[in-house]
């Protein structure tokens, strides 16, 4: 009988110890600096990066792979669609996206005015964009120091991946630029993109639409114009 009571007492003590350890861990996790002010700020910056990337990609798709065309374009549906006379340069696309992202992120975070209870110091963001076969990847170096009394937190690397076939879409566009009759060739229609071709202001407009990869819920499109 005594042995059973001792065993029960030890078992009960063990349960109490586990419960107190769990409570202590949960309370500590809630107040640890790494989970305190930095988490909502981190989420906020990530949201700005994703929205900036999506907006940039949508504008780029509507404007022949350009964000700010300065000449040789036709305005249609609030977009400046360049008339392509040479291939779309993917390196230039990434350069334009990098510049656009850096400016858009700064505008979005707005000096972190929504977090004025904390002292936040930050450096200018620097974006590196890469265009892969089935994605466009954004890596943003954005150094942020958050100070709250004695706590100091730092975040500096963010990323976003947009699942798009921009690489292949620009490849088709370049084939059309190099050989305008490519529009009517059989291999164009053997791809799994959808195409809309129509004349406008003495130019031929081409819309390449991807039915399998979406951005903000819509099929991604690349629009451009060529001389007929």
What would your notes on this structure say?
With 228 residues, the protein is of the alpha+beta class. It has one domain (33-226). 40% of the residues lie in helices and 32% in strands. The protein has helices at residues 2-31, 38-62, 90-109, 166-178, 186-189, and strands at residues 73-76, 79-82, 119-122, 126-131, 136-148, 151-162, 194-200, 203-215, 218-226. Strands 3, 4, 5 and 6 form a four-stranded antiparallel beta sheet that branches. It has a three-stranded antiparallel beta sheet with strand order 7-8-9. It has a two-stranded antiparallel sheet with strand order 1-2. Helix 2 (38-62) packs across helix 3. The longest helix is centred in the first third of the chain and has 30 residues, at 2-31. The chain is elongated. The N and C termini lie far apart (100 Å).
Tell me what portion of residues adopts beta-strand conformation. 25-35%
What is the domain tally? 1
| Rg calc | 27 Å
Counted by DSSP, the helix tally is 5
Residue runs with pLDDT of under 50 for 5 or more positions: 22-36
**Helical proportion, percent range:** 40-55%
Decide which structural class fits the backbone: alpha+beta
Distance between the termini: 100 Å
User: What is the N-to-C succession of helices and strands?
Assistant: HHEEHEEEEHHEEE
